[in-house]
Amino acid sequence: MRHRNVGKQLSRSTSHRKALRRNMAASLIEHGAIRTTNVKAKELRGFIERLITVAKKNTLHARRQVIAALNDRAIANNEGEIQDQSVVQKLFSEIAPRYATRNGGYTRIIRLAERRIGDAGKQSLLQLVEETKAAGETAAVGGRRRRDRVKRIAASQAAQAGVAAQAEKAQAQQPATTETVEQAPTEETPPEAAGA
């Protein structure tokens, strides 16, 4: 029985599976997106999202946890020179602050149509979600229809505000007249005469 054994074996030994996960996570942090098989992408998603959640704490203990889980491989380049920014430093300085207000869902899996050469395995693109929301902008929640509806409502409100502003501007431009025109009294017929 495999009670509480979470995750796929991926036809690898435990050490090979851990090394694969670490290398793929480091590549994802370094490049922002990687192309891999569907099963590997699903397995990596949970691992990288936990790393980002820990990195958001930005404490020494969190940094040590990430280093232990990730084994920072790119501290020095091929020539032996120290890199400006290692994978762990990039995770803490760039990626974790980007998701400071987001509770999970840092990655997306996009299934690709083309198959892998060799074994025709199904491929996916695993990428980090970009936070493009501006400071005062509210996030559109839900599907496409809801987002379109929110856009239409915002456009109509903006149009109504524009019409109101034009009316105020036109009213302000009209010359204010202080003279009142007296009307001549009109002769009204008495009600008895109108009925006869």
Polypeptide structure, described:
- The protein has 196 residues and is mainly α.
- It folds into 2 domains: 118 residues, Ribosomal protein L17 (50s Ribosomal Protein L17, Chain: A, Alpha-Beta Complex), CATH 3.90.1030.10; 30 residues.
- It contains 6 helices and 3 strands, in the order αβαααββαα.
- A 3-stranded antiparallel β-sheet has the order 1-3-2.
- Strand 2 and strand 3 form a beta hairpin.
- It is elongated and about 110 Å long.
- The mean pLDDT is 85.
**Rg estimate, integer Å:** 33 Å
Largest sheet: 3 strands, antiparallel
Briefly, what CATH class of the largest domain? Alpha Beta
Q: How many domain modules?
A: 2
Structural class by helix and strand composition: mainly alpha
CATH superfamily heading of the largest domain: Ribosomal protein L17
Number of helices: 6
Regions with little confidence, pLDDT below 50 for 5+ residues? none
Percent helix range: 40-55%
| Topology, number of strands | 3
Measured between the Cα atoms of the first and last residue, the distance is 108 Å
Known CATH architecture of the largest domain: Alpha-Beta Complex
Question: How are the strands of the biggest sheet laid out side by side?
Answer: 1-3-2
| Elements, N to C (H/E) | HEHHHEEHH
